[in-house]
Amino acid sequence: MRNETALGLQEAHGPWARVARFVLYTVLFVIFAGPLLALMIGAFTPTVDPTQFTLFPDRLSLDNLERAIDRGVLDYLLNSFIVVGGGLALQVLVSVFAGYALARKRFRGSAAVLVIVLATMMLPEEVLAVPLSVLLADLPVLHISLVGSLAGMIVPVAAWGFSILVMTEFMKEIPKELEESAKLDGAGEFRIFWQVVLPLCRPALGVIGIFGFTMIWDQYMLPLLVATDPAQYTLPLALRSMRSDDQVGIGVLLAGAFLAMLPSVLAFLALQRSFIRGLTSGAVKG
């Protein structure tokens, strides 16, 4: 019996086929894992001269990490955690309520609201930079300025079209019969949402949790617009500032980049089961 590949082609056998597969896998490993491996090794290689960078160092050291900490990297890391913690909590809260309203309720203009949500995903950050900076300098209704505060980096990411769309489409797949049964048992609107609908959305919560964390953590344009003092920098913005400093070696930058990468990896490992279930749930329905 001949095996077929994902493209429907017959899998080749023999020594030359094994060599070709080995070469292909090696190339893919170098392309995808090579930069990550170089980052990890460079972060713990005791050198500040970029011409001496090597994938096979003589010894490993924490010198670069210590010098990065001396540069205040931990303070920038704390700012990033505050922004991503507050922003992600608000984003998940907005997404689940908006998704519930769009998926489970019928109201006039719901289609227009969904179109507007989708339209926000089509606009690049550069287009939104000027109007966003104007709004943050004078918040409508409240007439307060969020410029120069971490709150100015949290509020704009509280609603994200991608997360709302994922929750909306996932909640549409929940059977209406469950909701009707809960109503017959005397459950109210909020109880149905909290005890019936939301527990079934754990895979979708894993998806928006990982993507939302990564989106907020990697923000560069927003902190650049809001921060007025280096003490307010998040880690991605601080790394760009350190990059322009001639006294900062490549090893220190790589150590800072390693610290910036680590939380995203840990977040994925923590939510990977829900993330995978969320991605594959649509493929096993119906």
UniProtKB/TrEMBL annotation:
Compartments in which it is found: Cell membrane
Record carries keyword Transport: yes
Entry's transmembrane regions: 22-44, 76-100, 107-124, 144-171, 192-217, 248-271
The keyword RNA-binding appears for this protein: no
InterPro entries recorded: MetI-like, MetI-like_sf
UniProt record similarity statement: Belongs to the binding-protein-dependent transport system permease family.
Matching PANTHER family: ABC TRANSPORTER PERMEASE PROTEIN MG189-RELATED-RELATED, LACTOSE TRANSPORT SYSTEM PERMEASE PROTEIN LACG
Protein name: Carbohydrate ABC transporter permease
Species per Swiss-Prot/TrEMBL record: Streptomyces chlorus
Lineage: Bacteria, Bacillati, Actinomycetota, Actinomycetes, Kitasatosporales
